[in-house]
Design goal:
alpha/beta, binds flavin-adenine dinucleotide
Length: 285
């Protein structure tokens, strides 16, 4: 197993993100997806964490399973809002015992209903980054938002907070976006603040238009008109996937040409789109 910070120091990383399934059927789908993607020899895979700890055990179990049963390096996402320091210390101890060496340290989102709020010792991801770094033995990643986090008051404040997180963390992974300029501007703005840690672009191939449009609205990512029009013109779900894969492939090629330190694919627990993009980019092993 490896520290992702070290992998990025050696060269480009190609990674896949999964979420913890809720049902036995979805669990089987994820198992099949991981088996289908393992031959692509990803640098690492990551597993998301339900805000406030709603998938605490399931995230841990999948990450530990990948560590035990595959040759792939896993990374656990961990959000801090809604957790006490004692809970976070226990979660990190459990990951350490399971041989997990990579944590994506996130703020998470407050519950939509304030009545669901849990006691929290944390407000921002930077506080979790500091605790994970202090726990030692973990490579720490953070989230970056090319089109600005929806709660940031302005662009300068967003970049300043990110640069502060990256002063301690080893790398960042971005929210998804559809045009390379968003990423390139983010990297330039961080460099202007003296921050040159690797920022890996997150790639979301559109395979279901309404689902991705909904996610884009929530995360603050612009859904470009040219892409919406091409998807609307698609006659079948198969055509939609084709358009989505083609657009994502072009974006990946532009990012790699521009020197991106890797690519992180939001797989939504399916392998087909990622495998097609890999093949189109000539990355298949
Ligand atoms: P923060 O860094 O805390 O930033 C949140 C906001 O607070 C920003 O506007 C920031 O500028 C501002 N801020 C930060 N510090 C300060 C300060 N000291 N004072 C004032 N303002 C401040 N969510 C999940 O629930 N589970 C996941 O597994 C998950 N995985 C993700 C993976 C990636 C790659 C990305 C990009 C996002 C992921 N998210 C996940 C979503 C993430 O939790 C949300 O976007 C969340 O709202 C912000 O997380 P953050 O880590 O960027 O938070």
């Amino acid at each position: 197993m490896a520290h992702i910070g070290d992998l990025l120091a050696r060269g480009r990383t190609f990674s896949f993100e999964f979420f913890p399934p809720k049902t036995d059927g979805a669990q089987l789908t994820l198992g099949r997806t991981i088996a289908e993607l393992e031959p692509l020899a990803p640098s690492f895979v990551s597993v998301t964490y339900g805000a406030g700890g709603s998938t605490r055990d399931r995230t841990h179990d999948i990450v530990a399973w990948v560590r035990r049963e595959t040759a792939i390096t896993p990374m656990a996402h961990l959000t801090c809002q809604g957790h006490t320091r004692a809970e976070i210390a226990q979660i990190l101890e459990n990951y350490h015992s399971a041989g997990i060496e990579n944590i994506l340290a996130l703020g998470g989102d407050p519950p939509t209903d304030p009545a669901d709020a849990r006691p929290s010792d944390y407000e921002y991801a930077a506080e979790l980054v500091a605790d994970v770094a202090e726990a030692q033995g973990f490579s720490v990643g953070v989230a970056a938002h090319p089109e600005i986090h929806p709660r940031s008051p302005n662009r300068a404040a967003d970049r300043q907070r990110l640069a502060e997180k990256l002063a301690v963390a080893d790398f960042a992974i971005t929210q998804f976006f559809f045009e390379a300029d968003h990423y390139l501007r983010l990297v330039d703005e961080l460099a202007a603040l003296g921050c040159t840690k690797p920022v890996v672009p997150g790639i979301m191939p559109v395979t279901n238009t309404s689902q991705v449009q909904r996610m884009a609205t929530l995360s603050g990512a612009a859904f470009p008109t040219w892409l919406a029009e091409r998807l609307e013109a698609a006659a079948s779900p198969e055509d939609v996937r084709h358009v989505g894969v083609e657009a994502a492939t072009r974006l990946c090629a532009e990012l790699l040409d521009a020197g991106a330190p890797g690519l992180h694919f939001y797989t939504l627990n399916r392998s087909t789109a990622t495998r097609e993009i890999y093949a189109a980019l000539g990355l298949s092993v």
